[in-house]
Amino acid sequence: MSKKGKSKFKWIIFGIIAAVVAGVAWTSFLKPAPLDYESVAAKTGDITTYYSFSGNVETKDRQNVMSDKMLQVSEIKVKEGDLVKEGAVLIKTTFGEEIKAKIPGEVVHLNVEEKAQVMAGTQLLEVVDYEHLEVKVKVDEYDIASLDQGKEASIKIGAINKEIKGTIRSLSKEGQIINGVTFFTATIDLEKDEKVRIGMSAEVKVISDQVSGVITLPMVAIQFDENNKPYVIKKGEKDTVIHTAIETGINDGTTVEVKSGVISEEAILYKKTTPNAGMDFRGGGMNRPGGED
Hints:
It is a single chain. The chain is mainly β. It has 3 domains: 37-49 and 211-289, conserved putative lor/sdh protein from methanococcus maripaludis s2 fold (Beta Barrel), CATH 2.40.420.20; 51-59 and 133-207, Efflux pump adaptor protein, beta barrel domain (Elongation Factor Tu (Ef-tu), domain 3); 62-128, CATH 2.40.50.100. The chain is 10% helix and 48% strand. The chain contains 1 helix and 23 strands. The strands form 5 sheets. A 6-stranded antiparallel beta barrel has the order 2-11-15-13-12-16. It has a 4-stranded antiparallel β-sheet with strand order 3-10-8-5, with no helix packed on it. The termini are far apart. The model is unreliable at 24-34 and 282-293 (pLDDT under 50).
């Protein structure tokens, strides 16, 4: 091959190499970047939402035994810690009068001695019913319509780390205005538990809404468009994504009911850095704190 032919062949080889390199570079340029998404599978499950309230354990009944006139004690028939029945004689006076228990309970705060002379209005003792306890909570006017007498409640007593059952016994007919908001009082009877003490703090939960056997997704997987309409992201062809409109139901603050647009076990994508906190889930049902003290 002549010198001129060799030079021409060399340029052809260089041209082919350059074309290959350019093609690879152009292909890389056109290829979409890897999708920066996490994936989660839709599940079939149950969701329960609650109204939450706070209060303290109280006794359903107590008798504050006081002298209604000046008197002298002749005999004390009980001592502190005694359990008495309704009608039991507690104290006798020098005039032959008997002061009796009006409720069954335990004698506490015995403040008088035999032969003592006391003035009218003096507290003599108390009879407290420790067997039947209750919790009273404040319920704002927007939640009161959702509560009914006889409805079950769950009461968490933090001091003993225990959850016990209760039942709504009564709802006040008159509200109290606090800082411009009207609150009503709900009284919940507690199941008997020897570890529960009067005065303990209690967190009361009453079911607001619940669904069973529905399609669910974690809240992080739900996106919202500029009109605040919910949608999810699904994987399309060749590293593309598809936005699919959905209808949501209730949510408990972490998990959302999906009524349409997603099937069970379907893979849903969500951006790692796109929080949706504060978005409006129009299906509602999130925990609503009730009347706080």
